[in-house]
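Input/output pair, single chain:
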Amino acid sequence: RHTLALAGYVAVPAGAPLGALRGGGPAPPPPDAAGLARASSDVDELLAAGLAAYAAAHGLEAIVPDDPDAATAMSRAALGLAEVAEATEHWSIARGALDRAAARGVETDRAREARARVDAARARRLAERRREVGEILDEARSGALAARPGGRRAALFRLVALQDRQTVRLLVEELDEIVEELREAARVVYGRAQPTPEEAARGEPFLPHLEEMIEARVAGEPGSAMPAPLQAIYFTAHRRIIRRARDAVGPGVPVDPFALAQERRIGEGGVAVAMLCCQALGRIGIEEGAVDALGRYLWAEEGETRAVHAGIALCLLGGARAQRLAVAARRRFDVRTGPYWNQVGRHAWRFEGDLPLISEDGQGYYERAIVRRAGGDIEGALEDLGRAIELLPDDDRPRGDRGNLLSDLGRFEEAEADLSVAIERQPRLAIAWVNRGVVRRRRGDVRGALDDFERAIELDDEIAVAWNGVGNGLTDLDRFADALQAYARAVDLDPDYAEAWCNRGNTYLALGRRDLARADYDRAIAIDPGLVSTWTNRSFLRYQEDDLEGAISDASRAIELAPQFADAWNNRAIARGQRGDLEGAIADASRAIEIEPDDPASWGNRGTAKMFAGDSEGALVDLTRCLELRPNDLSMRAKKVDALVHLGRRDEAVLEIQEMIRRAPTGSSWVGEARARMARLRAGD
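Output:
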């Protein structure tokens, strides 16, 4: 047997008498454990040693239960552990150890005194922490932090600096109180879901088991799935209440009666406190108590943007339980397209290296696939989705997600095959048609995509993502007026649908309506500041308006959000080149080429910047590559002519002009300009 003492190790061979440990003499007094803890730079290591000493003494007592010296060793190990635990403020460990020491009947007075001391110290520390934390939360509730520049950030730093279990416990208590208020507000709103007489006359169904559904939704186990019958009731109730609210305020006005009712119940102060508690719990880094509390809040919170703080906090804490809760919220908020996973998913890489299966079943593989995809582990995500499809043959979510992921990878045929199977299995599931429509559009089959989107609308004319798809397809066909109507329907159905606002802005920009495009881009950013395409497209709008600083700023923000998004690098390259920062323009276009080597725009942008920088040879190389990828780009061919002329290669320039004339559309202004240029070259001008 081996006994670990606080000050060192003493080996006792198996079967040896206790005297071997004593060395024939009296047992030494326990070291000053509290003093050691205060002097230690790693109190957790010392606490672990105390726990090991206690465990070893317990084992020794089991070997020789009638030896009084074994009882003494056990008592002293417990007392030593209690002193270390007291010094490190592990109160429950200290109290438990002291109770066990007193039960041995050895040094009971000392154990009793220590217990009183621990209880008093714990009470003092808790009162002190309660006062400190309470003051900070009271300032958040009153609005004082928001009114003070940098007040919220400073308060967060103060809470994180406390960094102990007492602070976590107090934040959890505060958050749980808010959770109860959120639950009550949601109960009231969901309780109004039965049809009105007018709705019943139109054939809208009565909802049986509504109360059961409400309790499952509001107070159920965080992350758990509702039984299918209750889930159907939930979807019907949710949609009905949202529709009523939208009808009351008019089209295009953001409205979420659930989130609004909760905000009214807890007030702006309660919202500020909840956000601060979530942020602090995530950054303090103590999982015990915090993960479950964040899960309860995330499950109760109906406001998607408010839920983001809890989702990010769970990602910061890490671990299987936190992973499951964060992913479960993603599934719930997917009912309404919004920013939850768009923002939280960017933090999911923190689960990397700590991705055990939550459960050895299809759901476990499916949820891990979601986190792996968000963290950039695409191959791992595909592997998990394949396994989930095998284990969940009747669940089309994994197959649909795999199809979408394959589409993102450009593997369109495989993606369409997966999504077609999903449609065959559930032909009345509108979102399955939407998913395949997205893939078909990416493949260039715009009319096939429109057929799928329109079929989805036939099945469910209130699915905003389908109307957005129709708008995209019509824009591809240059049917801009019809596209605008489709986008209007999408944002009417879901005023928080940032992508639809962005897409409508793109259509307005194509029509030259910059004022309306800017308004839509601004709206999309206000809804979801993490949507990369909006920043990228607004940067191009600002470039068109000669706001070069604004264009560079927006493109830089897009790059911060998605460093692998080539369009953002290209937009910044164009704006930097126009501003005269040719070195920066060349660097940005080069980065775009690294990301997408076959993107003609990147080669053209770099070639243009090199031309202005006086590097005609380099420009010629880049422009030639651009035209290999996009041979009908007449503006780039004209620049290639300029490069050849600057290099004195006039005969080649004439041949390039002839190619331009051959490729120009009949009647195009390019033809006349090219012929005039060729005449000047032949004349030696």
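Strands lie at 2-5, 8-11. Residues 1-41 have pLDDT under 50 and may be disordered.
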